[in-house]
Amino acid sequence: MIKRKTIVHQEGMVLNKFLAHCGLGSRRQCADWVKAGWVKVNGRTVREPSVRVQDGDRVLFKGKPVRIEKKYYVLLNKTKGVITTTRDENDRPTVMDLLNWPHPERLYPVGRLDRNTTGVLLLTNDGDLAQRLLHPSGRVTKVYRATLDQPISREHLEAIAAGVPLEDGVAHVDAVALPDPGDARIVGLELHSGKNRVVRRIFEQLGYQVIKLDRTSFAGLTKRRLPPGHWRYLTSQEVNRLRRMGIKPRPKGE
After folding, report:
1. Is 55 helix (H, G, I), strand (E, B) or coil?
2. Long-range contacts made by residues 198-207, C-beta under 8 angstroms, separation at least 24?
């Protein structure tokens, strides 16, 4: 468990950064909410995200007091049939049901895995880090292991390596290989694309059906020694490495 204490220093913390540290969302999202008039500081509506919050200031978001939360970073080995969301209107099982989360702070998935895709999923209440990892310029690597309905041809492996045209643009991968030389139905893909359902669509475009899809790695995090349906806290070393990834840090005060 990572317990990183965030302090509002004497010179203060800019408001949108403070709200992000409260677990409400990314700095950019929080800045938009401030501009929309959803935030009050000491009873006064503030519309400028760069206003500085001091120790002892009372901050309200949509009328409710907010405070800086402890930050938690969790790695889950998601199972099949589970929705990657915090709640589901149709009462289907979600990743939060797998967590049985013991703390009052709410966690949110970093990105998504579709209902039938298994494997590595990162959850956190650090909205700023989540945005950095998901930003296209971050080029965060994901590794998948796909089991197809039929052996893949050498021609189609080369097509995937070259880039497969989809309706929303060409899907590029960083690497494609057969992890099990004796079974050409199993294909490993390494990519950083953020396109929705991109792995399944790549194979569908080439005439294959994905029988099973498992994400074995996200941003260097793997599910090694983590059974399906189980989770663990990230180590401090893993968290520090994630913070060094993603888009370049904003200038101080932004």
Report:
1. coil
2. 198/166, 198/171, 199/144, 199/146, 200/114, 201/166, 201/171, 202/160, 202/164, 202/166, 202/171, 202/173, 203/146, 203/148, 205/164, 205/165, 205/166, 206/152, 206/156, 206/159, 206/160, 206/164
Going by pLDDT thresholds of 50, 70 and 90, the confidence category of residue 219 is very high
Cβ-contact 95, 78 below 8 angstroms: yes
pLDDT of residue 2: 41
User: What is the mean pLDDT of the segment spanning 135-154?
Assistant: 92
Structure token digits, residue 117: 């895709």
* Residue 197: φ, ψ to 5°: 50, 35
81 burial type by CB count under 10 A (0-12 exposed, 13-18 middle, 19+ buried): exposed
3-state class (DSSP) for residue 156: helix
Task: Return the amino acid letter for 181.
Answer: P
Is residue 114 part of the annotated active site? The answer reads: yes
Instruction: Find the catalytic residue in 32, 97, 114, 128.
Output: 114
Complete domains list, the chain, with CATH: 13-65 (3.10.290.10), 73-136+221-243 (3.30.70.580), 141-218 (3.30.70.1560)
Alpha carbon distance 253, 50 (integer Å): 7
Q: What are phi and psi of 130, to 5 degrees?
A: -60, -45
Q: Place 246 in a pLDDT band, splitting at 50, 70 and 90.
A: low
Q: Is 95 exposed, middle or buried (0-12, 13-18, 19+ CB in 10 A)?
A: buried
